[in-house]
Specification:
Blueprint lengths: L1 H27 L1 H19 L6 H8 L3 H7 L3 H20 L8 H16 L3 H10 L4 H21 L6 H22 L8 H13 L1 H10 L46
Length: 263
């Protein structure tokens, strides 16, 4: 009898240890599971489109049990949000390398290019998502919310206002720059993304409200303003392209249309 009790106790103790180990593994592998789900979702989107994609298909492609996948990301749009957070982190890593000699415009240019670099593994999938956005308002809203959040982070890191009335206008202007450049990036087949860099440089010049107009009205934070290695912010001109005013940029509540992009 004592031997049976000993065996029973050993079995119970073993089960407790096994469950504790599984819980620890679940915790430590969450980041890995998230990345696998992101890769799977964007890979499937590139192959079959985004609109009809299910979490079951994403989990199967990722090699993750569906219940485990849903514990990490409850929907495909949550997977898309996670990708945005991943890219935000890569973009902000670039900000850590800036010096006082880098002006806000140069910081914005470098961070957005760093963002495109981080998005490169998922370019085909993102192009497919963009194509499906007009018929998928839920993903459109999630995408635009993510873009606005990310542009706010970029402005903060560049010592430009991201909050208040001026910050809202600046954020919309930078979103217009980013979304317009993304259309070029999705089709840029150059090894060094030279077409994307040229488009971003041109769009920053045209969207003078991002780094020029508002910096003349609202003092920009940081010592490096205007001292960067790139072009100085252009002086506002009545001949500026009206399509690039912040008011014309898409807002988070606007209706979806082709050309608006996630991440």
């Amino acid at each position: 009898m004592n031997r049976r009790r000993d065996v029973s106790c050993m079995t119970a103790h073993s089960n407790v240890e096994r469950k504790a180990s599984m819980a620890e593994n679940d915790t430590t592998s969450t980041g890995d599971v998230s990345r696998r789900l992101i890769d799977a979702a964007l890979g499937l989107a590139a192959e079959d489109g985004w609109r009809r994609l299910t979490m079951a298909a994403i989990a199967e492609r990722a090699g993750v049990p569906l219940n485990a996948a849903l514990r990490v990301h409850g929907s495909r749009n949550e997977v898309l949000r996670a990708m945005g957070h991943h890219v935000d982190a890569a973009m902000l890593d670039e900000a850590l390398t800036f010096t006082d000699q880098d002006g806000p415009r140069d910081r914005l240019f470098d961070m957005l290019m760093r963002r495109f670099d981080a998005l490169s593994p998922w370019r085909a999938g993102l192009a497919a998502i963009i194509k499906d956005l007009p018929a998928d308002p839920g993903t459109f809203v999630v995408s635009m919310q993510g873009v606005y959040h990310s542009m706010g982070l970029a402005l903060e890191a560049a010592s430009l206002p991201a909050d208040g009335f001026g910050g809202l206008a600046t954020r919309k202007g930078l979103a217009a720059v980013y979304l317009s450049t993304m259309r070029v990036w999705t089709e840029d087949d150059t090894e060094d993304l030279s077409r994307t860099m040229a488009a971003l440089d041109k769009n920053l010049d045209r969207a003078e409200s991002v780094v020029g107009t508002l910096c003349r009205v609202i003092p920009c934070r940081g010592k490096g303003r205007g001292k960067g290695k790139g072009k100085a912010a252009p002086t506002p001109s009545p001949d500026a392209d009206p399509a690039w005013t912040p008011e014309d940029a898409p807002g988070p509540d606007d209706r979806p249309s082709s050309g608006h992009a996630p991440a």
